[in-house]
Amino acid sequence: MATFQIEGGHPLKGDIQPQGAKNEALQILCAVLLTPEKVTISNIPDIRDVNKLIQILSNLGVKIQKIKKGEFTFQSDDLQLDYLESEQFKTDGAGLRGSIMIVGPLLARFGKGYIPRPGGDKIGRRRLDTHFQGFINLGANFRYNREERFYGVEAPKGLTGTYMLLDEASVTGTANIVMAAVLAKGKTTIYNAACEPYLQQLCKMLNSMGAKITGVGSNMLHIEGVKTLGGCKHRVLPDMIEIGSWIGLAAMTKSEITIKDVSWDDLGIIPNTFRKLGITLERRGDDIYIPAHKDGYTIESYIDGSFMTIADAPWPGFTPDLLSIMLVTATQAKGEVMIHQKMFESRLFFTDKLIDMGAKIILCDPHRATVIGHNFKSQLKATTMTSPDIRAGISLLIAALSAKGTSTIHNIEQIDRGYENIDDRLRAIGAKIVRID
Ligand SMILES: CC(=O)N[C@H]1[C@@H](OP(=O)(O)OP(=O)(O)OC[C@H]2O[C@@H](n3ccc(=O)[nH]c3=O)[C@H](O)[C@@H]2O)O[C@H](CO)[C@@H](O)[C@@H]1O
Ligand SMILES: C=C(OP(=O)(O)O)C(=O)O
Q1: Where does UDP-N-acetyl-alpha-D-glucosamine bind (predicted)?
Q2: What is the set of domains in the chain, with CATH numbers?
Q3: Which CA distances in Å does 266 have to 180, 243, 249, 271?
Q4: Nearest CA to ligand 2 atom 4
Q5: Which helix H or strand E contains 198, and what residues bound it?
Q6: Where in the sequence numbering do the catalytic residues fall?
Q7: Which of 139, 258, 371, 423 has the greatest count of CB atoms below 10 A from its CB?
Q8: Ligand nearest to the CA of 241
């Protein structure tokens, strides 16, 4: 378990470039399995989860060449499907959440796909019904080995397009079903599809490979199946969760920061949601400029004067992955806010650590926390903590950078899952942070 030691209380200053998006890269990398031709992907972040998925692809026999930092070619023309039945795959596949999305492409192209129960954050129940119900709708047979926690789908006669209404707008579920349906016979309609920018990117990539998907960006996708897909070039968007993390960090540490090349039009309601906490964000071209909030920031109330609530919802609602960052940022705001994490039931427990540091938070129930901001009248106190999940981890890091004294964060592998070289990048803008392996 590696550790960060952070001396807090110093404002940061400078430019920061967001990495490529973790959750887009995981979808896009799985899509390379859909064609025997070469696929070139750029802006791939160098983070633990993505590297684990690239290793799985390599073990499956995908030929992978690094062109330069963040840019790779992938060619899936001679896959070793036996790997899917190996003990090694049971360990590799369970190591991250994104591995679930290899099932759709494998099922579509080879008539079978297997996966151990995938890993990812332990942030509450994370069911996979939407994925497998989607495959069943397309004509696949499903089996689950409870003892080995191993899922399998097979469609020896191929998949056939159909109409389906998903029981929830699952992000990875939609990606998986889309990747299966592009090679199915006939037409598939997916209603209640997730439609976040990363899914739009996946659909655009698949169309550039020869797929026929319409409705991209809406919750109703129409897919006309094709027989084969070809190669393509694709660039991954900047990571909107990282961008949100830097906004929270800038406000909490009273730092003047410019976040470069954010692809503003793909950020949806993220900038405005931070503005509800009273944070000033300026659009400068495609950058976000955040001035040093020397006089703090004041949480807005609703028009009728009632108490602000910030809650997650499927896109274009506010992403659940930024609520922990909102919560920590609110601890120094002027005013009060209710943070309502509707999707995951175990994501707010890390507030205990913030309370230890002196934050005023009432955890009302597993889904809701009320934060009463200090308005910088009282600084958080340094402490020793362990990062329970990726977004709690970055939130604790933000708290530590704003706190008085030296904090220690253990289990920073959780942060490394999704943030590339975070200590070097933060040091470059003035953070006092040391990694101890
Ligand atoms: C690798 C990856 O891309 N992970 C992301 C993906 O996970 P993932 O695709 O696993 O998440 P899902 O979209 O399937 O569901 C997330 C949670 O929200 C619930 N749910 C979902 C949709 C809905 O309409 N109603 C509802 O209650 C689900 O039951 C589940 O508890 O999307 C999540 C939701 O944005 C993000 O937190 C994860 O970072
Ligand atoms: C929950 C997350 O990731 P994963 O789905 O990979 O666990 C996240 O990125 O915040």
Answers
A1: 97, 321, 343
A2: 3-19+238-436 (3.65.10.10), 22-235 (3.65.10.10)
A3: 26, 11, 21, 11
A4: 120
A5: helix 197-208
A6: 121
A7: 371
A8: 2
